[in-house]
Write a structure and sequence with these properties.
Blueprint lengths: L7 H7 L2 E5 L8 H11 L3 E5 L5 E2 L2 E2 L9 H4 L4 E4 L6 H15 L4 E4 L6 H9 L3 E3 L4 H9 L3
Helix pairs in contact: 1-6, 4-5
Length: 146
């Protein structure tokens, strides 16, 4: 299967509310610096981390299902900072979220990570996906950052 069903740069242009599964409290990790970068660029970040109350100044939720319905209904992209073998479980949660809220529109797996089972789950749920790409890198491509 392809690495994505939608153009990553188009996703960056079109969608601005991102739930980040695996968002980190550790400022030395990509799971902290990438969402912080995106937030600085005007994106709304909703951290999902079962061990954090707050990540980078944003209230964190234990799981996607714990995001309040009124906020979940605004999520456009779920950016996943978890190992690829966990993608199918997250994809199932994303599919359930899509059934209950009509969103998200895109599942995003970070650079170097792909999972074929997750892709099938997402396609069945009619959720587009991007895998093996970094949102920070794609944003920089979009704005012409050198």
């Amino acid at each position: 299967m392809e690495k994505f069903t939608v153009n990553p740069v188009d996703v960056m242009k079109q969608y601005k509310t991102i739930a980040v599964v695996g968002a980190s409290k550790n400022p030395e990790k990509e799971a902290f610096t990438v969402p912080a970068y995106l937030q600085a660029q005007g994106y709304t970040i909703i951290p999902v981390n079962p061990t954090a109350d707050v990540v980078n100044g944003n209230k964190a939720y234990r799981a996607l299902a714990d995001i309040p319905m009124e906020l979940a209904a605004k999520v456009e992209v779920v950016d996943v900072f978890r190992p690829a073998e966990e993608f199918p479980e997250v994809a199932k949660q994303v599919a359930e979220m899509k059934r209950s809220t009509g969103r998200p529109f895109v599942f995003w797996g970070q650079l170097g990570l792909e999972n074929e089972e997750a892709k099938k789950i997402l396609l069945d749920a009619r959720v587009d996906y991007v895998m093996d790409k970094c949102m920070r890198v794609e944003h920089r491509v979009m704005v012409g950052w050198k």
